[in-house]
Amino acid sequence: MIHRRKPTRKKSLARIASGVVLTVILLFAGLSFLGIRMIYSEQFGRFERPDPATTSQMHHSDLASLYPHELVSFYSGKNRLRGYLYHNPSSLGLIVVVHGLGGGADSYLAQIQYFLDQGWSILAYDATGSYESEGNGVGGFPQGIMDLDAALQFASSRADLRDLPILLFGHSWGGYAVANILHLNHDIAGVVSIAAPNSSMDIILEQGSQMLGPVMYTQRPFVWIYERILFGKTASLAAVDALGTTTVPTLIIHGSADNVVSPQGSGIISRQGQIANPNVQFLLLDEDGRNGHNNILRSMESIEYVNQLNSELRELADQYDGEIPYEVKREFFRRVDKRLANDVNRELMDRIHQFFLDCIQ
Question: Are residues 256 and 325 in the same domain?
Answer without folding.
Answer: no
